[in-house]
Amino acid sequence: MGLTVAAVALLPGLAFGSFLNVVAARIPLRRSLVSPGSACMACGAPLAWYDNVPLLSFALLRGRCRHCKSAIPWRYPLVEATTALLVAACVLFVAAVLVAVLGPRGVRAADEAPEKRLAPADPSRRWQVGGGRQ
User: Does the structure show a pLDDT above 70 at 108?
Assistant: First the structure.
């Protein structure tokens, strides 16, 4: 269970790493984080969405701008990959803590449907004015 969840956590980790790259590039220049969209730092050409997919675009473009062919710094994919791995490691850690605290059966019980875990409510029991049940 833990490895599957950690593998799924890689994608949001990559997206978060990409956002961290945007923050690191734009804040020192006092530029907005929202607009304009991403552009090549060398030629200023705007990047299409498919040129902005974390790690994949860097690999497909061979680390170069589609328009001016200038090199894209290696720090961008490194930050994305490192962030994704850290997010996955945090997820694995939380899963290990849950297994340690709840035990493997407790973790599996938390994955079951709620209707299998919860007993039906007893409508015959009423609340007392003092705060307890009758």
Answer: no
